[in-house]
Design brief:
2 copies of one chain form a homodimer. The first copy, chain A, is α+β, with helices and mostly antiparallel strands. Chain A contains 6 helices and 10 strands. Helices cover about 20% and strands about 30% of the residues of chain A. At the A-B interface, helix 2 and strand 4 of A face helix 2 and strand 4 of B.
Chain lengths: ~250, ~250
């Protein structure tokens, strides 16, 4: 049986999803929970890596296993062996050939900014704070310029293997900015992401929000293919994987 | 100068606002911060006590002090001496006779329920989880029966001094229930509250949501003036002081 599992996690304490030489990964915790429940450690395929400190509202992974319990009982069983900041939300059977990474046609990330002089005691681990009032309408106008199929190498951290291989064309199907009171949220949906791409895109939009760039500067930044023309890489803690989109019934 | 300060805090670690013989109170932390910034420890008046573990989005307090800095600078100065889970949001001068408790004509509390089989890794400290699907429409119909001026002794924890003095009539000006996806939120606005009143009111509404009580049972529960006829006291962690209403310009 091929099983698709949806996880939510607070990434603050973790080195990302993928197992790393140093630091605790969400994947390792999940495999420990599988070991405790199933007595086995099947290979798991994650939908993405996620950087250290990045959060997920609905991370997807799959693994093959001859399960002897109803799949619906898996979330509660696994949650008993996971820390509070990692929760299994759902588990369901999927076709044998399904792969959590390759079957994803798009993924949606959100970058959350607290646009306020003071942190929230409830959400300071999930939002990057910028005290000065941002022009969210200008940010939203700039965001529209990212939509489409482009070479996004200007938004890729130096030293990435995708950049080394010239594999830096991606398609952003949606990018928009909304304000909810003191929160400015950047939403991006794309078929794939380069290393740190959302955090650099968010840093570039913040420069628009601060009036240091105009929305019309975005096409030239992309065309320059030069990382130095884009904005800074914002901190991991404001980033959350919101949704992974599959064609599943 | 009489100064009105608005605080937000995550109450998880604290014994409530008021200084208590055992446990750390938010008031003590705030006075320590005043001591660090002003070199003095003026007497502070809080808008309410709040129980151990209860949160506040906008707790109000006031104190008299001959301030030698612009009052607008007080939040940032105090926040440097407060833990991350207690934040000063604002400070402003108010008339000399203003008292944060007696000047409040109403206060709004929210009780947040996660109506889902699995906790959220982001909000498990701020929501009480009930796995079984609640009938939020029935809860909202029941909530309307609490609105008005009533003797709320049936919703008062045993051993309260208000109950001992027969001072248990309060006016609820608004009480409603809304569902936001997996969240069911109970909002109550009243001119005053008895000990554990919102948590017992919420526990009673949950019994309606579970089909164990009907909305039409609420008037009889109030009229019985018997705590045993109301629902259980829900845990503190789901409760948050949302807003304190003053007639200030």
């Amino acid at each position: 049986m091929n099983i698709l599992v949806t996880l939510a996690y607070d990434g603050t304490q973790y080195c990302g999803f993928q197992v790393q030489p140093n630091g605790t990964s969400v994947a390792a915790l999940f495999q420990d929970a599988l070991q405790a429940v199933l007595g086995a450690r099947p290979d798991i395929k994650g939908c993405s890596r996620t950087d250290a400190g990045v959060h997920a509202a609905a991370f997807c992974l799959n693994f093959h296993y001859d399960l002897r319990m109803p799949v619906q009982k898996l979330p509660l069983a696994l949650n008993q062996h996971l820390p509070d900041d990692v929760r299994v939300l759902a588990a369901r059977p999927v076709p044998e050939e399904f792969h959590a990474r390759y079957a994803a046609h798009t993924k949606t990330y959100r970058y959350r900014i607290r646009n306020c002089a003071v942190d929230s005691p409830f959400e300071s681990r999930y939002m990057h704070r910028i005290p000065r009032r941002l022009d969210d309408a200008a940010m939203n106008a700039a965001a529209a310029h990212f939509v489409g199929t482009h070479d996004f190498v200007a938004l890729c951290a130096a030293g990435s293997s995708a950049a080394a291989h010239g594999d830096t064309v991606r398609t952003i199907t949606d990018c928009h900015v909304e304000r909810y009171g003191d929160e400015v949220a950047i939403s991006v949906t794309a078929d794939g992401y380069l290393y740190n791409m959302v955090r650099i895109l968010a840093g570039t939009l913040v420069q628009v929000g601060e009036g240091r760039l105009s929305p019309q500067d975005i096409p030239a930044i992309l065309q320059s293919k030069n990382r130095k023309n884009a904005g800074p890489t914002l901190p991991a803690k404001g980033l959350i994987l919101e949704q992974v989109h599959y064609d599943l019934e």
